[in-house]
Protein backbone atom coordinates (compact mmCIF):
# COMPACT_ATOMS: atom_id res chain seq x y z
CA UNK A 1 0.00 0.00 0.00
CA UNK A 2 1.35 3.40 -0.97
CA UNK A 3 1.33 6.00 1.81
CA UNK A 4 0.81 9.70 1.24
CA UNK A 5 3.90 11.59 2.37
CA UNK A 6 3.90 15.08 3.86
CA UNK A 7 6.79 17.44 4.53
CA UNK A 8 6.31 18.99 8.00
CA UNK A 9 8.32 22.05 8.90
CA UNK A 10 8.50 23.94 12.17
CA UNK A 11 10.11 27.38 12.52
CA UNK A 12 10.04 29.23 15.83
CA UNK A 13 11.15 32.72 16.84
CA UNK A 14 11.67 34.56 20.11
CA UNK A 15 11.89 38.35 20.39
CA UNK A 16 11.73 38.49 16.58
CA UNK A 17 14.84 36.30 16.20
CA UNK A 18 15.24 32.71 15.04
CA UNK A 19 14.77 30.34 17.98
CA UNK A 20 14.48 26.77 16.68
CA UNK A 21 13.40 24.74 13.69
CA UNK A 22 12.88 21.15 12.64
CA UNK A 23 11.93 19.11 9.59
CA UNK A 24 10.11 15.79 9.20
CA UNK A 25 8.62 13.78 6.35
CA UNK A 26 5.77 11.59 7.58
CA UNK A 27 2.75 9.62 6.42
CA UNK A 28 -0.64 11.38 6.49
CA UNK A 29 -1.65 9.45 9.61
CA UNK A 30 1.35 10.85 11.56
CA UNK A 31 0.80 14.56 10.87
CA UNK A 32 -1.06 15.38 14.08
CA UNK A 33 1.23 13.55 16.48
CA UNK A 34 4.42 14.77 14.77
CA UNK A 35 3.21 18.39 14.70
CA UNK A 36 2.50 18.14 18.44
CA UNK A 37 6.06 16.86 19.02
CA UNK A 38 7.57 19.68 16.97
CA UNK A 39 5.44 22.28 18.81
CA UNK A 40 6.49 20.79 22.15
CA UNK A 41 10.12 21.07 21.09
CA UNK A 42 9.75 24.79 20.33
CA UNK A 43 7.97 25.39 23.64
CA UNK A 44 10.45 23.49 25.84
CA UNK A 45 13.77 24.72 24.57
CA UNK A 46 16.83 25.14 26.75
CA UNK A 47 17.09 28.78 25.58
CA UNK A 48 13.53 29.61 26.75
CA UNK A 49 10.18 29.07 25.05
CA UNK A 50 9.45 30.33 21.55
CA UNK A 51 7.18 33.38 21.17
CA UNK A 52 5.95 32.48 17.71
CA UNK A 53 5.86 29.02 16.10
CA UNK A 54 4.91 28.21 12.51
CA UNK A 55 4.23 24.63 11.46
CA UNK A 56 3.39 23.68 7.91
CA UNK A 57 2.41 20.44 6.19
CA UNK A 58 2.91 20.03 2.45
CA UNK A 59 1.90 16.94 0.50
CA UNK A 60 4.77 15.51 -1.55
CA UNK A 61 4.52 14.05 -5.03
CA UNK A 62 5.85 10.49 -4.48
CA UNK A 63 7.51 10.56 -7.92
CA UNK A 64 9.84 13.36 -6.73
CA UNK A 65 11.13 11.57 -3.61
CA UNK A 66 14.78 10.42 -3.75
CA UNK A 67 15.77 7.42 -1.62
CA UNK A 68 19.31 7.35 -0.21
CA UNK A 69 21.49 5.53 2.33
CA UNK A 70 22.84 7.45 5.32
CA UNK A 71 26.60 8.08 5.30
CA UNK A 72 29.06 6.07 7.42
CA UNK A 73 29.56 7.55 10.90
CA UNK A 74 32.88 7.93 12.73
CA UNK A 75 33.63 9.90 15.90
CA UNK A 76 36.99 11.48 16.68
CA UNK A 77 37.46 12.26 20.37
CA UNK A 78 39.67 15.30 20.67
CA UNK A 79 41.07 16.78 23.88
CA UNK A 80 40.47 20.44 23.00
CA UNK A 81 39.02 22.66 20.28
CA UNK A 82 42.43 23.51 18.81
CA UNK A 83 43.05 19.80 18.15
CA UNK A 84 39.49 19.48 16.88
CA UNK A 85 39.92 22.29 14.37
CA UNK A 86 43.25 20.91 13.15
CA UNK A 87 41.55 17.55 12.62
CA UNK A 88 38.67 19.25 10.76
CA UNK A 89 41.12 21.06 8.53
CA UNK A 90 43.00 17.89 7.60
CA UNK A 91 39.75 15.98 6.90
CA UNK A 92 38.58 18.81 4.65
CA UNK A 93 41.89 18.80 2.76
CA UNK A 94 41.70 15.00 2.35
CA UNK A 95 38.23 15.50 0.81
CA UNK A 96 39.61 17.91 -1.79
CA UNK A 97 39.22 21.33 -0.17
CA UNK A 98 42.27 23.56 -0.73
CA UNK A 99 44.18 24.04 2.59
CA UNK A 100 43.82 27.82 2.49
CA UNK A 101 40.09 27.46 1.85
CA UNK A 102 39.64 25.02 4.76
CA UNK A 103 41.45 27.46 7.08
CA UNK A 104 39.38 30.41 5.83
CA UNK A 105 36.10 28.50 6.30
CA UNK A 106 36.96 27.56 9.91
CA UNK A 107 37.90 31.18 10.62
CA UNK A 108 34.68 32.41 8.99
CA UNK A 109 32.43 30.14 11.10
CA UNK A 110 34.34 31.07 14.25
CA UNK A 111 34.07 34.81 13.60
CA UNK A 112 30.43 34.96 12.37
CA UNK A 113 29.77 34.69 8.62
CA UNK A 114 26.50 36.69 8.62
CA UNK A 115 26.17 40.48 8.25
CA UNK A 116 28.04 42.26 11.07
CA UNK A 117 29.68 39.03 12.26
CA UNK A 118 26.40 37.29 13.12
CA UNK A 119 25.60 33.57 12.98
CA UNK A 120 23.78 32.62 9.77
CA UNK A 121 20.62 30.49 9.90
CA UNK A 122 21.35 28.93 6.53
CA UNK A 123 24.57 27.52 5.12
CA UNK A 124 27.45 29.06 3.21
CA UNK A 125 28.27 27.58 -0.19
CA UNK A 126 31.99 27.86 -0.85
CA UNK A 127 34.06 27.00 -3.91
CA UNK A 128 36.44 24.30 -2.62
CA UNK A 129 39.29 25.60 -4.76
CA UNK A 130 38.98 29.40 -4.85
CA UNK A 131 37.21 29.88 -1.49
CA UNK A 132 34.66 32.21 -3.13
CA UNK A 133 31.30 32.36 -1.40
CA UNK A 134 28.54 31.40 -3.80
CA UNK A 135 25.29 31.54 -1.81
CA UNK A 136 23.06 34.23 -3.36
CA UNK A 137 22.18 35.87 -0.03
CA UNK A 138 24.98 35.97 2.57
CA UNK A 139 22.51 36.86 5.32
CA UNK A 140 20.03 34.07 4.66
CA UNK A 141 22.31 31.35 3.36
CA UNK A 142 21.00 28.03 2.03
CA UNK A 143 18.39 26.22 4.13
CA UNK A 144 18.44 22.50 3.55
CA UNK A 145 14.90 21.21 3.71
CA UNK A 146 12.62 18.23 3.00
CA UNK A 147 14.64 15.29 4.30
CA UNK A 148 14.06 12.58 6.91
CA UNK A 149 14.34 8.89 7.66
CA UNK A 150 11.91 6.88 5.51
CA UNK A 151 8.79 6.17 7.63
CA UNK A 152 8.86 2.33 7.24
CA UNK A 153 12.56 2.12 8.28
CA UNK A 154 12.53 4.97 10.79
CA UNK A 155 12.26 3.00 14.02
CA UNK A 156 14.86 0.40 12.96
CA UNK A 157 17.37 3.15 12.11
CA UNK A 158 16.63 5.12 15.31
CA UNK A 159 17.11 1.93 17.36
CA UNK A 160 20.46 1.19 15.69
CA UNK A 161 21.66 4.77 16.25
CA UNK A 162 20.57 4.50 19.89
CA UNK A 163 22.55 1.28 20.39
CA UNK A 164 25.58 3.07 18.90
CA UNK A 165 25.20 5.89 21.47
CA UNK A 166 23.73 8.34 18.92
CA UNK A 167 20.30 8.70 20.48
CA UNK A 168 19.78 12.46 20.56
CA UNK A 169 17.60 14.01 17.86
CA UNK A 170 20.32 16.62 17.32
CA UNK A 171 22.75 13.96 16.04
CA UNK A 172 20.09 12.14 14.01
CA UNK A 173 18.92 15.34 12.35
CA UNK A 174 22.47 16.52 11.60
CA UNK A 175 23.26 13.10 10.08
CA UNK A 176 20.16 13.25 7.88
CA UNK A 177 20.95 16.80 6.78
CA UNK A 178 24.59 15.89 6.07
CA UNK A 179 23.38 12.84 4.13
CA UNK A 180 21.21 15.01 1.93
CA UNK A 181 24.05 17.48 1.35
CA UNK A 182 26.44 14.64 0.39
CA UNK A 183 23.93 13.31 -2.13
CA UNK A 184 23.70 16.69 -3.86
CA UNK A 185 25.43 17.30 -7.21
CA UNK A 186 28.90 18.84 -6.94
CA UNK A 187 29.37 18.70 -3.16
CA UNK A 188 32.96 18.01 -2.07
CA UNK A 189 32.57 18.26 1.72
CA UNK A 190 30.70 19.92 4.57
CA UNK A 191 31.92 21.53 7.79
CA UNK A 192 29.49 22.15 10.66
CA UNK A 193 29.39 23.00 14.29
CA UNK A 194 26.35 24.03 16.29
CA UNK A 195 25.72 27.62 17.42
CA UNK A 196 24.48 26.24 20.75
CA UNK A 197 27.09 27.51 23.27
CA UNK A 198 26.68 24.31 25.32
CA UNK A 199 27.36 21.91 22.41
CA UNK A 200 30.82 21.79 20.88
CA UNK A 201 30.74 18.58 18.80
CA UNK A 202 30.65 19.22 15.07
CA UNK A 203 31.53 17.31 11.94
CA UNK A 204 33.23 17.18 8.59
CA UNK A 205 31.47 15.04 5.99
CA UNK A 206 32.54 13.98 2.55
CA UNK A 207 31.29 11.45 -0.02
CA UNK A 208 34.11 8.93 0.63
CA UNK A 209 34.48 8.92 4.42
CA UNK A 210 30.95 9.99 5.39
CA UNK A 211 29.90 11.78 8.56
CA UNK A 212 33.02 12.34 10.69
CA UNK A 213 32.08 13.72 14.10
CA UNK A 214 34.70 15.72 16.01
CA UNK A 215 34.02 16.18 19.72
CA UNK A 216 35.57 19.63 20.15
CA UNK A 217 35.24 22.20 17.41
CA UNK A 218 34.81 25.25 19.61
CA UNK A 219 35.44 26.31 23.21
CA UNK A 220 32.65 25.71 25.71
CA UNK A 221 30.33 28.74 25.90
CA UNK A 222 31.20 29.95 22.39
CA UNK A 223 28.01 30.96 20.48
CA UNK A 224 29.64 30.68 17.03
CA UNK A 225 28.49 28.01 14.58
CA UNK A 226 26.98 27.20 11.20
CA UNK A 227 27.54 25.17 8.07
CA UNK A 228 29.80 25.46 5.03
CA UNK A 229 29.11 23.35 1.93
CA UNK A 230 32.25 23.07 -0.22
CA UNK A 231 31.52 22.56 -3.89
CA UNK A 232 33.45 21.77 -7.06
CA UNK A 233 34.21 24.83 -9.21
CA UNK A 234 32.01 23.56 -12.07
CA UNK A 235 28.90 23.11 -9.92
CA UNK A 236 25.54 24.22 -11.28
CA UNK A 237 24.41 26.53 -8.47
CA UNK A 238 20.68 26.70 -9.40
CA UNK A 239 20.51 22.89 -9.62
CA UNK A 240 22.36 22.48 -6.31
CA UNK A 241 20.19 25.00 -4.45
CA UNK A 242 16.98 23.53 -5.84
CA UNK A 243 18.05 20.06 -4.72
CA UNK A 244 19.09 21.17 -1.23
CA UNK A 245 16.09 23.38 -0.53
CA UNK A 246 13.24 21.71 -2.41
CA UNK A 247 13.81 18.09 -3.48
CA UNK A 248 12.52 15.54 -0.93
CA UNK A 249 15.04 12.92 0.22
CA UNK A 250 14.28 9.93 2.44
CA UNK A 251 16.93 7.69 4.00
CA UNK A 252 15.93 4.04 4.13
CA UNK A 253 19.25 2.49 5.24
CA UNK A 254 22.03 3.20 7.68
CA UNK A 255 25.74 3.18 6.80
CA UNK A 256 28.39 1.54 9.03
CA UNK A 257 29.02 3.14 12.44
CA UNK A 258 32.56 2.90 13.86
CA UNK A 259 33.36 3.05 17.59
CA UNK A 260 34.69 6.45 18.77
CA UNK A 261 38.41 6.90 18.25
CA UNK A 262 40.70 9.04 20.40
CA UNK A 263 42.84 11.57 18.58
CA UNK A 264 45.92 12.67 20.54
CA UNK A 265 46.84 16.36 20.28
CA UNK A 266 50.23 15.70 18.65
CA UNK A 267 48.72 13.36 16.00
CA UNK A 268 46.36 15.99 14.66
C1 LIG B 1 26.66 15.52 16.27
O1 LIG B 1 26.94 15.45 17.47
O2 LIG B 1 26.94 14.60 15.48
C2 LIG B 1 25.93 16.75 15.76
C3 LIG B 1 26.83 17.85 15.37
C4 LIG B 1 26.19 18.99 14.66
C5 LIG B 1 24.99 19.64 15.32
C6 LIG B 1 24.48 20.77 14.53
C7 LIG B 1 23.42 21.56 15.21
O3 LIG B 1 22.86 21.10 16.21
O4 LIG B 1 23.15 22.67 14.78
List the helices and strands and how they pair.
Layout: E1 5-14, E2 17-27, H1 31-43, E3 52-59, E4 66-69, E5 73-78, H2 81-95, H3 99-111, E6 124-127, E7 147-149, H4 154-163, H5 169-182, E8 187-193, E9 202-206, E10 210-214, E11 226-231, H6 237-246, E12 249-253, E13 261-263
Parallel strand pairs: 4-12, 5-10, 5-13, 6-11, 7-12
Antiparallel strand pairs: 1-2, 1-3, 8-9, 8-11, 9-10
Helix pairs in contact: 2-3
Bound molecules: pimelic acid.
Give me some keywords for this one.
binds pimelic acid, 29% strand, 28% helix, 7-stranded mixed beta sheet
Number of strands: 13
What is the 3D form? globular
Number of domains: 2
What is bound: which ligands? pimelic acid
Instruction: Give helix and strand order, one letter per element, not per position.
Output: EEHEEEHHEEHHEEEEHEE
Q: Helix count?
A: 6
The main pleated sheet reads as: 7 strands, mixed
Indicate the proportion of strand residues: 25-35%
Distance between the termini: 51 Å
The low-confidence runs, each spanning 5 or more residues with pLDDT under 50, are none
Q: Provide mean pLDDT, rounded.
A: 94
Helix content: 25-40%
Strand order of the largest sheet: 6-11-8-9-10-5-13
- The computed structural class is alpha/beta
Textual characterization of the structure:
The protein has 268 residues and is α/β, with parallel strands linked by helices. It has two domains: 5-64, no CATH class; 68-263, no CATH class. It has six helices and 13 strands. The strands form three sheets. Strands 6-11-8-9-10-5-13 form a seven-stranded mixed beta sheet, sandwiched between helices. Strands 2-1-3 form a three-stranded antiparallel beta sheet, covered by helices on one side. A hairpin with an 8-residue loop joins β8 and β9 (202-206). The protein is globular and about 50 Å long. Pimelic acid (PML) is lined by residues 170-171, 174, 192, 194, 201-203, 213.
